[in-house]
Amino acid sequence: MREDIHRWQAKYRRAGPIQPLAPDALLLRHTDLFVAGGIAFDIASGAGHSAVYLAQRGYQVVAFDCSSEGLRRAQQLAAQENTAIQAVALDLDRAQLPPDKANVLTCFRYLNRALFPAMEAAIRPGGLFIYKTFNVHHLKTSPRFNSKYVLQPGELASLMPNASVIDLSDGTTSGEIYSWLVARIA
Fold first, then answer.
1. 5, 68, 83 from 10: Cα distances, Å
2. CA-based, 20 to 30 A from 73: which of 14, 47, 90, 145?
3. In the chain, domain spans
């Protein structure tokens, strides 16, 4: 993970001005599921677009990422949007997420299969899980992408066996490069 941390630190140091808020379309599509208040965890938060969006919805947001530079940018974005987030730099390969704390947990474009039990345990009963990352179809257009960081068809649902599915695309459509899951945790 140390190599990944350095790569992301460098990427965010080279980045230009803070971009306007642009939450993922999956979040926007499921806005009706958000209940104002509570705690939200944004895993692999990067520049913080999901975290800031959740803060605007009334959540106390903890943004976790391996890159302190990315989190610094996330806090700048939050300030631009007149809100605040808590930023926690964390090696996600060794993550110890606080259990039973989050009303909402989001994670976008990050895959660490070993982290799924900790993410599930971090969500309070009835809490919302929103996850989206690349699947194997992404390799058709980006063959140099590391294949260990893509989901196989049908894999995502198996990683969250206790989830009550609200919306799922699990890589079974060949033209769709993302797999996603929106679910309530029992």
1. 9, 11, 26
2. 145
3. 2-185
Rounded-to-integer distance, Cα 166 and Cα 105, Å: 14
C-alpha–C-alpha distance, residues 91 and 135, integer Å: 23
Sign of CA dihedral 78, 83, 89, 91: negative
Identify the sign of the CA torsion 31, 102, 178, 3. Answer: positive
Placement of tokens 């890159």 in the chain? 67
Strands lying side by side in the sheet with 163-169? 86-89, 60-65, 39-43, 102-108, 123-134, 178-185, 163-169
Candidates 3.40.50.150, 1.20.1250.20, 3.90.550.10, 3.40.50.2000; CATH matching 2-185: 3.40.50.150
Which pTM does this prediction carry? 0.94
Instruction: Please tell me the predicted confidence (pLDDT) of residue 1.
Output: 54
Q: What is the pLDDT of residues 38-47, one digit of tens each?
A: 999 999 999 9
